[in-house]
Amino acid sequence: MFCAGEFIDNQYTIEGTSLHDRVHTLSENYREDTWQVRAIWLKSEQYKLIGKSDLIESESGQLYPVEYKRGHKGEWDNDELQVCAQALCLEEMTGKTITQGFVYYAHSHQRQLVEISDQLRNEAIATIQSIIQLMQTGQMPKAIYSKRCKGCSLYSQCLPQAVEKVGRYQED
Ligand code: SF4
Q1: Is 162 in the same domain as 137?
Q2: Does ligand 1 lie within 6 Å of residue 85's CB atom?
Q3: DSSP state of 81
Q4: Pocket flag, ligand 1, residue 163 (CB < 6 Å)
Q5: Do residues 24 and 38 lie in contact, with contact meaning Cβ atoms separated by under 8 Å?
Q6: CB 159 less than 6 A from any atom of ligand 1
Q7: Are 110 and 153 found together in one domain?
Q8: Order of all β-strands in the sheet with 62-69
Q9: What is the pLDDT of residues 24-45, one digit of tens each?
Q10: 2 located within any domain
Q11: Residue 42: which domain range?
Q12: 160 within ligand 1 shell (Cβ under 6 A)
C-alpha cells in the first residue's frame, strides 16, 4: 500500500471499514462503573504513531484500549500488536503504565484479553521500526507466498506465487 500506492477492497476490508464506521462516532459515557470514550485520536511522538481508537475504557483506575475486529481471532498476532501500539500511545499521553487491552470480535461478540507484556512490547516496537524504515526507504518488501495471502485484498496486484515462480525460473 505505501510503496506501490495501491489498495483494493475485498469482503474482509469492506466489512472491517463498515464496522469501524459504526464505532467511530465520538462519544463518552459510563457503563456501570466503567468509563468509556469512543473514537478519540491517540498519538505517540516517540514511536511516530497516530490513529483513531475504537474504544478506551477506564475501570478501577485502570485505563486500557479496546480494538474492534469483524471476524474471530485468527492465527496471526496483528490484532495484539495493534492493541499494544495503542497502549504505547496511551502511556505517552497519560504517563500511566498500561498493562492490558482487549480485542472485541464482532462475529463471536467476545472480548479477548491482550496482556501488554514485555515480549509483546518488544515485538510491537520492532514492527513499528520496520514500518518506519519501509516508509523512509520506499523499498518494497519481497512478496513471499504464505497462508496469510489467502485473505489479502492485494493478492491480484501482488501475485506472490507467480512472482516466486518467475524468480525461480530466472535463477535456473
Ligand atoms: S498477497 Fe501475500 S505477499 Fe502479497 S501483499 Fe498480500 S499477504 Fe503480502
Answers
A1: no
A2: no
A3: H
A4: no
A5: yes
A6: no
A7: no
A8: 27-31, 34-38, 55-59, 62-69, 100-105, 110-115
A9: 788 899 999 999 999 999 999 9
A10: no
A11: 11-141
A12: yes
